[in-house]
Write a structure and sequence with these properties.
Elements lengths: L2 H6 L5 H29 L8 H24 L2 H20 L9 H18 L3 H11 L2 H26 L5 H26 L4 H24 L1
């Protein structure tokens, strides 16, 4: 979700990069699920995936997800890029002012999950709306791995759609980019363990400010391209 705005500054077409992001996400999500299964069998850390809430959430998200995929394949690339930058801008603004999206109502949960699923279908940037709901219902130590499984499911739906309509999957680029993604994955795991034990509002404010700058430039390019 955070990579796409930067990539769109290079080529203003989500369909160029989404297949790459999708395949890498499937690969590393599968690795996370295997590690979780292995840890559960060894009874070292217990289950790290909340399968119960994941199943309940998917019953809400599946229809809007499919509707979003249809939108991605039919809307102009320029429109999609503008939508993505607006979404990221709103997400980053919440980071910057330390006012993340919060929910304490089943109705709001349903609205956020449905909207997030639709946006995920169009651009794989539904995380800002989906994460608050999961964070409110899933234990902190299970949140990351549960979200990885969710991303796997949502991404698999999108990737299958790409194959069915003949989108170029950029397969030749997956091999040389995979080691780079692997380094990011390992560093991300270590960073995740650190932020589990400490609140880091300054980090998120800096991240929010950077994403606002990137989104503003990208939105200007999309609207004037």
């Amino acid at each position: 979700m955070l990579a796409l705005p930067f990539l769109l500054l290079i080529v203003n077409d989500p369909l160029v990069f989404l297949p790459l992001i999708a395949v890498h996400l499937l690969f590393f999500s599968s690795l996370i699920m295997w590690q979780s299964h292995h840890a559960q069998r060894q009874n070292t850390t217990g289950p790290s995936i909340d399968w119960g809430f994941l199943k309940r959430a998917m019953t809400i998200m599946i229809v809007p997800k499919l509707a979003g995929v249809i939108g991605l394949l039919t809307l102009p690339a320029q429109w999609m890029s503008a939508i993505i930058f607006v979404i990221v801008f709103g997400y980053a603004l919440g980071y910057l002012i330390n006012r993340p999206i919060r929910t304490q109502s089943k109705t709001v949960d349903t609205i956020l999950l449905s909207a997030g699923a639709y946006i995920s279908g169009t651009s794989l940037t539904g995380a800002p709306l989906i994460i608050p709901v999961f964070a409110n219902h899933v234990s902190k130590h299970q949140l990351r791995d549960t979200l990885f499984v969710l991303w796997w499911i949502l991404t698999a739906i999108k990737l299958i759609s790409f194959v069915l309509v003949g989108v170029d999957l950029q397969l030749i680029h997956h091999l040389w980019l995979l080691p780079c993604a692997a380094i990011g994955h390992v560093l991300g795991q270590r960073f995740h363990q650190r932020i589990l034990a400490a609140e880091t509002p300054l980090f998120y404010r800096i991240l929010g400010g950077g994403l606002i700058a990137v989104s503003s430039v990208g939105l200007w390019q999309a609207l004037n391209g």
